[in-house]
């Protein structure tokens, strides 16, 4: 048997596997990996997880599926009879709240969270619960902002910024 034939029998399957793996990883098809189940949407809507706030896939799909974004901060952590999610469930409201925020999320964090779902919230309803503690001379706490900061959201913002006064102000605050 020739050396080249022996080498092909040894390395051929490895090379073929590597080429197929690259083709799958680089293909434009998602193979269902970007689909979020309705149960995941429902639990993410009230989870108050920093991963949900910083991410975009779950938020985008839920808001496209009719959830209404509720922007706030520590108000969402207190589940009582007057909580928006409880009211929507109990009284079969026509909307489902998607809670965005947690303790320590303030205006700059919320601004960048909105940038990742700008397409899904444009010309749609949204609810803002603004806390008085957001308006302090020293601004947001650096440790709270750092905890909820997502470079992915900043990239979404940068891809769509238009050098407007609002974009310049957000950039100044980010720095």
Main structural class = mainly alpha
Helix content: 40-55%
Assembly context of the chains: single chain
How far is it from the N-terminal to the C-terminal residue, by CA? 67 Å
Cα gyration radius (Å): 22 Å
Poorly predicted runs of 5 or more residues: none
Series of secondary-structure elements, N-terminal to C-terminal: HHHHEHEHHEHHH
Task: Give a short synopsis of this structure.
With 175 residues, this protein is mainly alpha-helical. The protein contains ten helices and three strands.
Topology at a glance:
Layout: H1 3-26, H2 38-45, H3 50-54, H4 57-64, E1 67-71, H5 84-90, E2 96-100, H6 107-115, H7 118-121, E3 127-128, H8 142-148, H9 151-160, H10 165-174
Keywords:
175 residues, mainly alpha, three-stranded parallel beta sheet, 10 helices, 3 strands, 7% strand, elongated
Word description of this protein:
With 175 residues, the chain is mainly alpha-helical. The protein is built from ten helices and three strands, in the order H-H-H-H-E-H-E-H-H-E-H-H-H. The protein has a three-stranded parallel β-sheet with strand order 2-1-3. The model has no long low-confidence stretch (mean pLDDT 86).
